[in-house]
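A protein record in our archive is deliberately plain, so that people and models can read it alike. The tokens are whole numbers drawn from a learned vocabulary of local backbone shapes. For reference, a complete record is included directly beneath this paragraph.
>
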Amino acid sequence: MKKFAPVIRGYDHFLHGGDYNPDQWLGHPEIIDADFERMREAGCNTFSVGIFAWTSYEKREGEFDFAWLDRIMDRMAAEDHRVFLATPSGARPAWMARKYPEVLRVDARGIRDRYRLRHNHCWSSPVYRDKVADINRRLAERYAGHPALGGWHVSNEYNGSCYCDLCKARFREFLRERYGSLDALNAAWWSSFWSHTYTDWDQIEPDDFCVDALAVDWYRFNTWQIVDFMHHEVAAVREFSDAPVTTNMMGFRPDIDYWQVAGVCDFIADDRYPGWLEVRDFAGTAAAAAMCHDFHRSMKRRPWVLMESSPSNLNWQPYYRLKRPGLHRAEALLAVGHGADAVMYFQFRKGRGGSEKFHGAVVDHEGSSRTRVFRDVAEVGDILRRIAPVRGTMTEPEVAVVFDTDAWAALMASGGPSQGEKKYAETLNLHYRALWELNLPCDVIDSTADFSRYRVIVAPMLFMLKPGVAEAIRKFIADGGVWVGSYLSFYVGDSNLYFTGGLPGGGLRDVFGFWNEELDGLTPEDRQSLIPAADNTLGLSGDFPLEAYAELLHLEGARMEAGYGSDFYAGTPALTSHIYGSGTAYYQSARCGLEFLRAFYRALVARHGLETAAPAAPGFHATVREGDGERYLFVYNFNPEAGTFDLGGRSGTSLIDGGRRAGEITLSGFGSDVLRLD
């Protein structure tokens, strides 16, 4: 596998830096001077500039001043730094909101917002689109050839909905293009429910979520709006600049399909803020962060950018908890081990006011390089320089976990099978964590991705089957793949209509070898368990508690690997396997806890001969990047105490301190290392 080119053309470094807001310090040039000293000391080389700077460019309509940005860009170039120059659409000036109220969003009640907060702009407003295109063109024309320009940071954390008449009209046009006719829409939405059959497009109200298919299409429309708006922004930039563009994503969400946003991006960027609040389970926090990292690496199957993280505490989480010594280094290297070629922060210097003055930053209000946090950041900067050969390498997993935004949205929009949170993302995280603990590299993919590159696909709670997915699952398993599914899978089609003819839907009953007749909702007082069959093929043993959901299956060729322990369906299948073609379909028909998933995936890895990065050990993790004939092993201890970790017969040289590593190695509490493997 060849190494990938740098994210910033011709700039062959790990990127290290973050959001820098000199526009907040224009009255204090001595602070800006000090910032450039701190950048050098911290080993920082790349900065996002101008994210919320619109008013600093255009204090009054049509009166532009870029002199301050000229000075900053020139200083960045003189230091051989690079800038992701932001388009400022994430927060519009007050004068614009006052003069053109149509740029502000309307909520579901029909009330237009006031000028406040950020990200409250209407996606459809012609005025806002014109203003955004104008400021973007001016920035692109002025800085397209600037030596400091590394790329374009388009807006910031796109999100939210608008219910104004313009957006409603666009939603109805979106539906007209999707369905073609009202008859087709009424059929797809089952709109005869509660006499909701539509006889005119204008009758469709986007907040009428008693039609659950409407709710799913509204989420899809919101993604379409965001993608369309980003295309609009990028088009203005592209009139003058061909530098790479991106926008910063925010992990797993049911209301934005980031697989589609990724199509507008030249490289993927994410904002990730693990809080380390579960003090008895730091590894769980690390695994959740790593799953998001793999999600973003998988989008373009190339290195990505950690655009925002915090080197210290977070002002918006329930507890203002400091990172313990070693955790910042481990968190940064966790992103790199899972494919990041950049570690960047929000923000470089703490602001003195506003809602984020308590948010962690590289440079504290105190201003010097003497703080513990600054030393932690400088250590990461030094490490990124030492591990430079890793930049551009990649991970090629045999296993993928399926995260499907539409499946999540459809499940949340459905009035059942229980009220409240259905724990889709949490369930995926538990499955992923069990794999992460085994040091088994994973991609995180959409249900419409190419399955053929993987040996094992894990797809819990795949509630919705999009067009073509059932056929892809059938082919994947028949061709020798291993599929791991779970309860609440294959219930509805693309418009959230329940399948008829029995579950699994989509014609998959013969692939999985059972009929799923009923779903039992378990209360907190219910005591249900999964008990492995004496002759199960995975060698499982024990008694594992279940919660929330339990499906009642009838075998139609599948093998019962485990059964329920109690109630009227005791002894019926809770875990099945089915040979189909050359592959195997596993199905967990109830929500199992982490202890069962650990046992199940440990047995699955052994049975199917999957390669792990290193032997498993509690609280430890290992992952691999490779390219140009070299392999690099990242190892982590997410325990507060020092411990030993078995490299599993591997050996190598630490890129951090040059020492040799083989056999069992010792890592300090929250310790981490990067090895070039022999």
